[in-house]
Amino acid sequence: MRVYAIGDVHGHLGLLEAAHARIRDDGGAGAQVVHVGDLLDRGPDSRGVVEFLMAGQAAGRDWVVVKGNHDRQLPQFLRDPRWIDPCASLREPWLARDTGAAETLASYGIADAERRDLDTVHAEALRKVPVAHARWLDALPGWHLTPLALFVHAGIRPGIDLREQTEDDLTWLRRPFHDDPRDHGVLVVHGHTPVRRATHYGNRVNIDTGAAYGGALTAIRIDADGVWVLDDAGPRRLTPGATDRE
Questions:
Q1: Helical (H) or strand (E) element with 17
Q2: Do 149 and 124 have their domain in common?
Q3: Residue 176: is the preceding peptide bond cis (ω within 30°)?
Q4: Which of 136, 157, 187 finishes a domain?
Q5: Single residue among 136, 154, 184 that ends a domain in this structure
């Protein structure tokens, strides 16, 4: 058995397509691929990312997408442009937080959103963002469990049953998850907190390598022999306590 995963995309369709190509070369077109969320914001083509993934699922690809904290912003904005995410450190709405909202809206043909009247931008977004996209983003699961790994966006609250984990924690949590060395019963694969290179901590693997900030978009394979980072040179083993370059 093997399963693949891709880190935080943040609107970079070209990087996502390249990651899928590496997976296809390694495991074939039928490979199961789990995306750990944060599809939207900061990059130039959030709409293209959503359309690519929706089209793949509609075509029968075994692609799973879990929800990231950025992925819940657009649907919430469409419902209420003044909604404030209760977990965000900056107590302002999505469009005012400088986290990539304007880039996401621009990908839907809504220009200069950060400099225009909020209600006018909201009305335009209701016209231009397909309802199907908002519904798909809303319906993304918070986690995906396989025999090889548990996939979440941000982390899990240690010691809490998976079925009791909240969306806030699954999409936003850092501490105490990062600081907890215990065996969670299964390897946890996540993103959310950018690292320079994919890193294996023994009980978890972080695959957010900063595509949002000009870094790489990491794709990994997990099989009975361990965790492997995929690049143009082929798979490279990722061992606990090491990054993919060590």
A1: helix 13-27
A2: no
A3: yes
A4: 136
A5: 136
Q: CB under 8 Å to 60, separation ≥6 — which residues?
A: none
Alpha-carbon gap, residue 111 to 233, rounded angstroms? 39
Q: How far is CA 159 from CA 118, 150, 181, 183, in A?
A: 42, 15, 12, 10
User: What is the pTM assigned to this prediction?
Assistant: 0.96
Q: Quick one: pLDDT at residue 211?
A: 98
User: Could you tell me if 96 and 196 lie in one domain?
Assistant: no
The β-bridge partners of 3 are 222
Q: Which residues pair with 6 in a beta bridge?
A: 35, 219
- DSSP states of 38-55: --SSSSS-HHHHHHHHHH
* Number of alpha carbons in the 13 Å side-chain half-sphere of residue 82: 4
- Read off the pLDDT of residues 198-219 as tens digits, 9 standing for 90 and up: 999 999 999 999 999 999 999 9
Identify the CATH number of the domain in which residue 154 sits: 3.60.21.10
User: What span, in angstroms and rounded, lies between the C-alpha atoms of 4 and 146?
Assistant: 11
The pLDDT of 102-110, averaged and rounded, is 98
Rounded alpha-carbon distances, angstroms, from residue 100 to 3, 108, 121, 152, 196:
30, 13, 15, 21, 20
User: Residue 236: CB partners within 8 Å, gap ≥ 6?
Assistant: 228, 229, 230, 244
Nearest Cα to 228, choosing from 217, 238, 218?
A: 238
* pLDDT beyond 60 at 242: no
